[in-house]
Structures are given as C-alpha cells and as structure tokens.
Amino acid sequence: MAKRAHPKPKKRARKPEQYRQCLLTGDRLTKAQMIRFVVGLDGRIVADLKANLPGRGLWLTARRDCVDEAVKKRSFSRAAKCAVEAPEAISDDIERLLAQNCLNLFGLAQKSGHLATGFEKVLEWVDTKALAAVIEASDGQPDGRKKVLNRLVHQPGEVSVIGCFSRDELSLALGRENVVHAALETSSLARTTRTEIGRLAGFRDLTPKTWSDAHSSSRNNEGPKRDQKGT
Fold it and tell me: What does the pLDDT look like over 42-82, one tens digit per residue?
C-alpha cells in the first residue's frame, strides 16, 4: 500500500509591523527599531529589551544619542508625568545587554544548524546557501576576512557583516575554540538576530574602524567588514 503523503504545513501569515512613537524625536518607527523603557517600583527607569515588563511603555529610537539626550533632557520624567531617575550609564548597560542577546542568538542558531563556523565551512556556505549574515572576529587576521568578504558578491541578497565581537566572545558563545569566521543561514531565527543586530548598531560600531573601507562595506546598511582563518 502506498504511503499517504503528509499534507504540506500551511505557512503562517506574518504579523503586521507594530509602530511606536519615539518620546524624544516624535518619529513613528517599528518596535524592532526601538527600545522600550518602563518605570520601576523604585522610580528608576528600566530598559525593557524584550518589551514584556508590566507598566506603561516609554519608547525611544534604538540609538545611543537618543537615549543619552533623553537622560540629559529629563524626557523620561516628562513622558511618565512623574519624577524618574535615569542612570547616566544606561546606554552602556543597553549596549552590553544587546550584545549578549546577539551572542545568545548565535548560539541558538548553531544548535539549530543555521550557523556554521570555520574558514572552509564558511566559504562553502557563502557559495551554496542564502546567508543572512557573516560574522568575523574583530581581532582576526585580514587575509582570511578579505577572502570571505570578497566571495559575498555572489550572494543573492543582502548579507550583514558583523565584526564587533572578539574571537574570545564568539568562542565562548558558540562553545568552540578559536572562532574567527561564522556564517548565519537565512531563517526565521536569522530574522530575529538581524533585528537585534540592527538595534545593537545604534550603540556600537558593527565593524572596527581599523578595518579598511574597501572591505568594510556590506550590502546591508546594518554594518560592513570581516577577517582571518580560524574556526
């Protein structure tokens, strides 16, 4: 008896984008482009990166200058209509948390088979898979980076180039030694990762300024550049 073919799963309709207004600039942007804040019980402002804490949300464009200006101008207090304490170092805290979120997402992508490491493997993926991002250790050697980046011209779509993490950070996040090159395959998880990388770009350069302009341009406005042989 012939086996019955399994019905193809229906594709879920993507949720429409939700917009919020930046309390500093008045711009209406998608939630993915912003940072939500809430006022804690102690009267201190809290960055709610997952946008799931209780309380009225106060939204800012995901950029360091916007957050710093809001602190300086006491915009949180005016928006909340009460006295609010906003730590001066809150931008640094947000950058650190966003960076850790990105590293955690790299680890999840690796476990699900959507992220590969190693110079040869990354080159193979560049040639054979649709990539969302190439990740290069900030302290890797330029020769390997250039070879990987130069191959991106064959990619069919935009590829983010992420070079703001050291090999030690990447190695720890991915549970491997000497991670210098990594490639992230296009997937739903990659979309989430690119969103978080986009927010991080508002607080940190995605590639070192020491990387030459010739190898820093990505076909994506989130960031440019790449590096060495390693895993």
Answer: 999 999 999 999 999 999 999 999 999 999 999 999 999 99
Let me know whether 184 and 198 are in one domain. yes
Main-chain phi, psi angles of 209, to 5 degrees: -65, -20
* CA atoms lying within 13 Å on the CB side of residue 23: 23
Handedness of CA 187, 188, 191, 192 (dihedral sign): negative
Q: How far is 91 from 36, CA to CA, in rounded Å? A: 13
In angstroms and rounded to an integer, the radius of gyration of the C-alpha atoms of the chain is 20
Q: Does one domain contain both 30 and 107? A: no
* Diameter over CA atoms, the chain: 74
Q: Is residue 1 part of a domain?
A: no
For residues 108 and 151, state if they share a domain: yes
**67 within some domain:** yes
pLDDT, one tens digit per residue, over 100-138 is 999 999 999 999 999 999 999 999 999 999 999 999 999
What's the chain's length in residues? 231
Range of 135's domain?
94-215
Query: Residue 82's CB: how many other CB atoms inside 10 A?
Result: 10
Let me know if residue 108 belongs to a domain.
Answer: yes
